[in-house]
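**Protein record**
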Amino acid sequence: MSLNPFKKPSYVGVDIGHKHIKLVQLDRMGTGWRVTKQVSIPTPSDSVKDAVVVDPDVVGIAIKAGMREHKITASQAVIGVSGASVIVRTIKVAKMTPQMLRKTIKYEAGHYVPSSIEDSYIECEIIGDAPEEGLMEVLIVAAPREIVESKLAAVERADLEVDIVDVEAFALYRSLIESDEHSVLNQMTVAIVDIGAAATTVSVITNGKFAMTRTIVQAGQVMTDALRTYFQLSDEQAEQGKSQLDFSPLVANPLTENAPLKVIQTHVDDLAREIRRSLGYFQSQQTESSKNNPVTHIVLTGGGAKLHGLGEYMANKLGAEVITTGVFDNPKFVPAGIEPPGKGLEWAVATGLAMRAHTKAA
């Protein structure tokens, strides 16, 4: 396929999840964004496992069909990676030039990457000087080649050229917080908790700088599976039943007699416990370096955050202010079409990926 060199390339953000593939296209609109395309496609069964696209052909065919059906004519894609084996961390190293850092980053990253360095893609960025003399802070990102290359293969099967591979946690921050320059969260230490189907990602950001990202296996599908098994339902029935539950009453009375709530309360409590552990680890790192930047706000997002009253329940469990938010809570984003788009909890990653292409172009 030959491309017209004078035609401006069009981009689509592609978020490949375990249950849904989301496609978003954006247009710049003054200081904001118009969402021109917003498409959700069911992920083919058993085609994605542990963030790896195990069947790139079938996923690529699904993406291509979805684009054709919804008249998305993009030629370039921005994709994201996530998962327990994707490492995002700020480290301190001796001051050096960017060129020297490039030569030594694999050695430095080897202290933090659990898998083989040779089997990972490594990127880094100098953040600035560290408080300690002679040191600087560097953000390192490491992603297993298997995850990156499986997503590349799937998207290229859809006849899209992958222009950028981003980190999903970065995309979340871009669409939910960074996009609104007036948000007070830009100057705070916040945790973004993205509850997906197969995993939950916890990212801590201080004054716009990523400090930590961790993946938790407790997520939406675990709760759906618990309801399905206990009440002998289909997956669709369990998902529908879950969407009708309300956690708000459990704040005042945690010993509920509501059977469906009792079934998934254990899993929600497990999730809260793992989030607390993540925040505790971050705080311990702050204490060791004589900093005092506690997480004051938790931004709850993702499809799993749609559970009614979950934010209120989590705030009570975690002892922090919890804001449940999606891209359409931000007036900077104008949704496509005339149907009420809801909060856009499940669209933050795909939207942030689509924004990344415009940032690059700028």
